[in-house]
Design a protein that fits this description.
Strand 18 and strand 19 form a beta hairpin. The longest helix has 16 residues. It contains 14 helices and 19 strands. An eight-stranded mixed sheet has the order 3-6-2-1-9-11-12-10, with helices on both faces. Strands 14-16-13-17-19-18-15 form a seven-stranded antiparallel sheet. Strands 4-5 form a two-stranded antiparallel sheet. With 417 residues, it is an alpha/beta fold. The structure holds adenosine-5'-diphosphate (ADP), aspartic acid and magnesium ion.
Length: 417
């Protein structure tokens, strides 16, 4: 009898009728003879609603208290799911993070899972109960409630799967797998049958929100395969695993021989440029951003072309979410003990678009191809940078959809009609 961990995201449990149909799906898995742990997100829109409530009282709410508030969303969905299962004659129990010992660090809003205690989970599974766990939340050393960052239920599911030595973790969502580009933006994107942890991690880091990046990191570390599936229709989905090529069948749509495998984007970005800091200050700034779970891309002027950003070498440039500029300024003020007004220049209303490369040696060719595709469509590029596995361009938000589609087709990723 295998243990299967199934995670359902917000849209999948977004209404009572959705909760009932997920309950039926869980029952099917139980009837196939599996022990099942279900990890749930809050019902769709709930985390945003709670955040907005707190922000009416304080635009930057106290982080500990915000986590107490946000964690309630998942408690609602797990209890409703347990009610639906019990009503159908299934033995089920809902549990929040502290009841099963999901231990995290104390970085409110972006906590990392340190350990999942398998005792309580194991007991419930032995008693043939379906265990329904609240995703997105944990408990720090001082018993404070913590949350894992947006999309964090994916990471809860992977960590629980590792703890109970599950055969597989299945991430059920509102698309039927991982695509070569967000299928909501690129209708011609192709579903990938399988993808490696490393490539998926790069996609997630650069904006493919279908899996939280930390979930992929965790799965990679513990070699726990993830299958991304639709909760709305049957299908094979996408397997995220160590060596996907061996697991593919011959008809696979994965472009294993192509140097670019997907196009992803981060929206609502800004470029922040600040005068060069002392090395120790610079290090401190990066550490503090990481500690607060603020994702940023550092632009090394030696490795990127600053097409429309001036004064490149006297400055540090960051690509960062626009709503984190306030945090960046306050961290900087603490580090340098000086006011930041007029010091940080920001360029707002941007998107970062990236092509993920599977052949590192082709980086430069890829960068010039990205630039030429964008330029010939009269899309202005603020900056373009390359890493071992990706090439990213920062463009105006208003050009995003056009640019995504052009790069996807320009690199030969479009599905055939
Ligand atoms: P859930 O609420 O189930 O966690 P998310 O909204 O977090 O779902 O993630 C699913 C969404 O990810 C899809 O609706 C899709 O728009 C988006 N997405 C972005 N990039 C990709 C991609 N490369 N493949 C599939 N989905 C993607
Ligand atoms: N409810 C949280 C969010 O909306 C966590 C999750 O859905 O994974 O981000
Ligand atoms: Mg998600």
């Amino acid at each position: 009898m295998a243990v299967i961990v199934q995670k359902y995201g917000g849209t999948s449990v977004g209404s009572l009728s959705r909760i009932e149909s997920v309950a039926e799906q869980v029952i099917d898995t139980v009837r196939q003879g599996h022990q099942v742990v279900v990890v749930l997100s809050a019902m769709s829109g709930e985390t945003n609603r709670l955040t907005a409530l707190a922000q009416q009282l304080d635009p930057v709410p106290a982080s500990r208290e915000l986590d107490v508030l946000l964690a309630t969303g998942e408690q609602v969905s797990i209890s409703l799911m347990a009610i639906a299962l019990v009503k159908r004659g299934i033995s089920a129990i809902s549990l929040v993070a502290h009841q099963i010992g999901i231990k995290t660090d104390n970085h409110f809003g972006a906590a990392r899972i340190k350990h999942v205690d398998k005792k309580r989970l194991g007991q419930a599974l032995e008693q043939e109960q379906v265990v329904i766990v609240a995703g997105f939340q944990g408990q720090d050393r001082d018993n404070n409630i913590t949350t894992l960052g947006r999309g964090g239920s994916d990471t809860s599911a992977v960590a629980i799967a590792v703890a109970v030595k599950a055969a597989e973790v299945q991430i059920f969502t509102d698309v039927d797998g991982v695509y070569s580009g967000d299928p909501r933006i690129i209708p011609k994107a192709k579903r990938l049958d399988a993808i490696s942890f490393s490539e998926m991690l790069e996609m997630a880091n650069l904006g493919a929100k279908v899996l939280q990046n930390r979930a992929v990191e965790y799965a990679k570390e513990f070699d726990m395969s993830i299958r991304v599936l639709s909760s709305f229709e049957h299908g094979e989905g996408t397997l995220v695993t160590t060596s996907p090529i061996e697991t593919l069948d011959k008809k696979s749509s994965l472009p294993v021989h192509s140097s670019v495998s997907s196009v992803v984007c981060l929206q609502k970005r800004a470029i922040a440029s600040l005068p060069r800091l002392k090395d120790c200050e610079y290090l401190q700034l990066k550490q503090e951003l990481n500690k607060q779970g603020i994702e940023f891309t550092l632009i090394d002027p030696n490795k990127c072309q600053l097409v429309e950003v001036e004064n490149s070498c006297d400055c540090h440039h960051f690509v960062i979410s626009s709503d984190k500029i306030v945090c960046l300024k306050s961290i900087l003020e603490e580090i340098t003990s000086a006011p930041t007004s007029g010091i940080i220049r920001t360029l707002n209303g941007l998107s970062q678009i990236s092509v993920i490369c599977s052949e590192p040696k082709k980086q430069e060719t890829i960068a010039s191809k990205v630039l030429s595709i964008l330029t010939s469509a009269e899309i202005s590029t603020k900056l373009i940078s390359t890493s071992a596995t990706a090439c990213s361009a920062v463009i105006d938000e208003s050009d995003l959809i056009n640019a995504m589609r052009l790069l996807h087709s320009g690199f030969g990723l479009d599905s055939l009609p």
